[in-house]
Amino acid sequence: MKILVIGASGLLAGPVIAKLDSAGFQLRLFSRSVRPSMFVNEYEIVNGDLFRTADLDLAMEGCDAVHISVSGVDEYKASEVIVGMARAKGIQLISMVSGATVREENRWFEFTDKKYRSEQLLMNCGIPYLIFRPTWFFESLQLMVRNGKAMVLGKQTHPYHFVAADDFGKMVAVAYADRAKWNRAYYVYGPERYLMKDLLEKYCRELHPEIKSVSETPIFILKLIATLTRNRMLKYAASLYAYFQKVEEPLIRDSELHLLGQPELDFAHWIELQKQ
What we know:
The chain has helices at residues 13-22, 53-60, 75-89, 110-123, 165-177, 196-207, 219-229, 232-246, 254-257, 267-275, and strands at 2-6, 26-31, 44-47, 65-68, 93-97, 129-134, 145-146, 149-153, 184-188, 214-217. The chain is α/β, with parallel strands linked by helices. A 7-stranded parallel sheet has the order 3-2-1-4-5-6-9, sandwiched between helices. The protein has a 3-stranded mixed sheet with strand order 7-8-10. α3 (75-89) links the parallel β4 (65-68) and β5. α1 packs across α5 (165-177) and α2 (53-60) packs across α3 (75-89). The longest helix has 15 residues, at 75-89. The two termini are 33 Å apart. The relative contact order is 0.13.
């Protein structure tokens, strides 16, 4: 099977690409900024915009499956375009990265609503599908450290089963390799639950000992700064973290969580890999 990875330059794409490669799949990578230097192994690469028909047509030509791992775009519109092209190209399997809190009751938040509608589109498009609903990733911790400071946005009081992107990649490969696992959605949780601030403090002690404390910046201050500076990215980040202040990770039975195998990396083992 030859898999087109859309959004191949993203944070979560790398581990998925590596695990699919190790499992013996052929890969073609597609995004506007993906480069060979991002990877250890060599892959087919197509640079382009998924909203340009000619670019997407070229990228999908000759592929059997499509994995969607996009961010920073309208995900529902992206899914519509990809599914339409996938039908025309005779794609056999289409998968997407969604999120653990993507549920009917959380559709009041635009980001979640678009992912929810994208899930429904895949489920009803007539092409076999896989939907992955991961929780927070250990890799997101690095984004909370900037200019010698560590900061959590808002008062994050809900614990999450942080998971390693490497474990996520393994689960994607397992799902792709077994047709009996197609046509369903999978939650992806790590083995331990942490409050965001507590985990960031542990992360800093291990990798940034010069940072002595983790601050919590109130959401209203972020929104004010974003408005005054017209910073769209900061405005989006403030709204996203405000959402997670309100929304908890859903409780999922272990039997359901382990359908694609159990995650191997807890925080202690993950942090040791980061030190290598």
